[in-house]
Write a structure and sequence with these properties.
Helix content is about 40%, strand content about 10%.
Length: about 300
């Protein structure tokens, strides 16, 4: 097996998926490992998640990190048929234009091209209900406070993580359940969740469903939702699982910066993907403590 470069692509973006398919067809020598960042633990990404969303990151076989145009150029150059075009991409004029075209496409793709184009679940959870390649899963209307059918008195709480299949849906289920237990004092709130790299329509991870079930909450009907500026604008408060998620959310909706905060002011709520059931239980219990405190703040 030759040394391999690892490329991380956004599995919910049709541009990214098509580029990845092309690279797979060209990679006769097996020099590239192509991984969907929406199902990769954050700790394994070579850059912060908000930077990964701005351009494809790559970790080369010798340990270097490239992002965006240089990463695409390097990946193409590692393939037999792409070697010559990659050399041309190093020419000063071509490189200058290519980098700016890439930057424009990357900056505008969430509005123009992001649509599930593969069977990834967006967060490492159970794959049940994933759509066939090239098709869109059924989507419910995005819940937000600007929906004309929503009661005017609703106060929307939005939880945000990466793929919207583990931490943020656990937070949503726990917050909704805690509010229900408060009776009248919990009325008037609506709780939703989304992911900065989520593919729409994926179920919650089986471990997440079980962890919140053990606490008395229900997550079985959850389906993932990509984070959008509209969701952020419609929320009263946006609780993010890490500061990196908060930065990504603020980049999507700069005007809403003041209401986007980490759920835990003292640090990250870590990603439990691949860590086993005990870790999911620990995360669920931590979420419950954090959310109790946050609900007290909102009700005070």
């Amino acid at each position: 097996m030759p040394p391999r470069d690892t490329c991380f692509y956004d599995g919910r973006c049709s541009y990214c998926v098509r580029t990845t398919r092309l690279l797979r067809r060209l990679d006769w020598l097996g020099r590239l490992e192509l991984r969907d960042l929406t199902s990769t633990p954050e700790s394994e990404l070579p850059v912060a998640i908000e930077e990964a969303m701005r351009g494809m990151p790559m970790r080369t076989a010798d340990g270097r990190v490239l992002v965006g145009y240089p990463a695409v150029r390097r990946a193409l150059g590692r393939t037999p048929l792409g070697f010559a075009p990659a050399l041309l991409m190093h020419l000063p004029g071509v490189s200058w234009v290519g980098a700016r075209v890439y930057g424009f496409v990357a900056a505008n793709r969430p509005r123009r091209a992001c649509a599930i184009d593969s069977g990834n679940d967006g967060g490492g959870g159970a794959g049940g209900g994933a759509p066939a390649p090239g098709t869109l899963p059924p989507m419910a209307p995005e819940p937000n406070a600007s929906n004309p059918q929503s009661p005017e008195r609703e106060r929307v709480i939005l939880f945000v993580c990466t793929g919207n299949t583990c931490r943020s849906p656990m937070g949503e289920a726990i917050a909704r359940g805690l509010l229900a237990r408060r009776g009248e004092s919990g009325e008037g709130f609506r709780v939703i969740s989304a992911g900065v790299s989520a593919a729409p329509g994926s179920p919650a991870a089986a471990e997440a469903v079980e962890a919140v079930r053990e606490l008395g909450f229900d997550l079985g009907e959850h389906r993932s939702t990509p984070l959008t500026p509209e969701l952020i604008a419609g929320a009263e408060i946006v609780y993010c699982m890490t500061p990196a998620h908060a930065r990504a959310a603020r980049a999507l909706a700069p005007a809403s910066e003041s209401k986007i905060v980490p759920l835990d002011p003292e640090g990250d709520v870590p990603d439990p993907i691949g860590m086993g059931m005990d870790v999911y239980r620990q995360i669920a219990e931590r979420l419950m403590d954090l959310i109790r405190a946050r609900l007290e703040e909102l009700e005070s």
